[in-house]
User: Which sequence fits this backbone?
């Protein structure tokens, strides 16, 4: 009998890098999560109406989308490690800017900076995560994204607690920035060397995404469109369509979020056991089925359960698609991740207003049904393209 294959243990340096980049994902989620409880206070301080606030918040999205392709070029030129270090510390500092702005125009510019730095960090940390994954020889990307989800949860709750303790938004932002900046200084020195994914001399600093990278990006667009729709419309659906009160309406997104974090912690094992393409395809089917259940049965518990299934289904799609983009043959990890992330982030922004227009023209059930259709498209095409990206 042959002994079962046991993969070699990773080197100490790779093991340290894995823990370090997981901590970076946590920092990113926590810093951005800490911004959520500050938004209504900024609105009150600057006397912003809903439309003005919406335009200011758009600055963060514009900054992120503009910076992501450039981040791919930075990773190609310098390697992901130095870009991760600079952007991590930069985000910890930039999160203070919105609190210090005296008017809406400067708030827009501050959020443009925050979004840009976050976009660079998003691409760089995913590219470095792929480098660590390659060094380990097994999937680990889902666990990184689980750490991001955990960080977002921690940052939102911790930020709210700091606000109660300090009573001042700038003090909350400064505490978050300094704390996670110090944490970053401790862990960032354990990243892999910059040469592991640095482009060769003469390598183009920026390559316009094409071919399979665009297809993977479009699948990520549909996945993140669904994520954005769940964030903005689950509570509205439960409250306005099914008649749930405000406290019960919040259960929809809570079920989605908890299921997503749970699924991500199990995602690496599932990917190793069944393969990347099968995982994304079957998960997208689960997400579509959960949404259809939520809109087809007019019962609050069933709808909450359906949104939970949707979160479980979507949980590992983005990590796997990012990993596939970073492993495309003939293309650097930075360019591949940048293409997938940019298109995905665009979907996150497009999803909520698309559902709103659909609800206005037809119904909210119809709008959420369109999201289910998008998940079905992901299920069909994932088996054809995801495996080709690793």
Assistant:
């Amino acid at each position: 009998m042959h002994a079962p294959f046991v993969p070699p243990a990773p080197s100490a340096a790779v093991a340290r890098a894995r823990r370090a980049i997981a901590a970076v994902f946590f920092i990113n989620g926590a810093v951005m999560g800490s911004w959520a409880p500050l938004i209504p206070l900024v609105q009150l301080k600057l006397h912003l109406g809903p439309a003005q606030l919406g335009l200011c918040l758009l600055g963060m999205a514009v900054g992120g989308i503009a910076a992501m392709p450039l981040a791919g070029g930075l990773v190609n030129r310098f390697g992901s490690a130095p870009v991760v270090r600079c952007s991590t510390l930069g985000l910890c500092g930039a999160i203070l800017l919105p609190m210090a702005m005296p008017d809406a125009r400067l708030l827009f510019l501050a959020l443009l900076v925050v979004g840009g730095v976050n976009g660079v960090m998003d691409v760089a940390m995913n590219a470095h995560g792929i480098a660590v994954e390659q060094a380990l020889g097994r999937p680990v990307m889902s666990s990184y994204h689980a750490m991001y989800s955990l960080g977002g949860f921690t940052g939102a709750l911790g930020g709210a607690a700091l606000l109660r303790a300090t009573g001042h938004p700038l003090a909350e932002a400064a505490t978050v920035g300094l704390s996670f900046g110090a944490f970053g200084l401790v862990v960032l020195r354990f990243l892999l060397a910059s040469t592991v994914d640095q482009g060769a001399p003469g390598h183009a600093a920026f390559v316009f995404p094409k071919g399979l990278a665009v297809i993977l990006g479009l699948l990520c667009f549909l996945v993140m469109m669904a994520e954005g729709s769940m964030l903005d419309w689950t509570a509205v659906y439960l409250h306005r369509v099914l008649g749930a009160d405000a406290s019960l309406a919040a259960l929809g997104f809570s079920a989605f979020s908890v299921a997503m974090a749970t699924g991500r912690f199990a995602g690496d094992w599932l990917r190793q056991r069944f393969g990347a393409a099968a995982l994304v395809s079957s998960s997208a089917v689960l997400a579509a089925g959960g949404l259809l259940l939520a809109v087809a049965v007019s019962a609050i518990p069933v709808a909450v359960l359906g949104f939970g299934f949707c979160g479980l289904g979507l949980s590992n799609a983005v990590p796997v698609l990012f990993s596939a983009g970073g492993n495309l043959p003939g293309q650097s990890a930075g360019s591949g991740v940048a293409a997938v992330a940019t298109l995905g982030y665009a979907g996150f922004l497009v999803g909520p207003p698309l559902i709103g227009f659909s609800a206005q023209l037809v119904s909210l059930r119809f709008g959420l049904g369109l999201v289910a259709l998008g998940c079905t498209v992901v299920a069909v095409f994932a088996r054809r393209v995801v495996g080709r990206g690793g």
Remarks:
- Residues 1-6 have pLDDT under 50 and may be disordered.
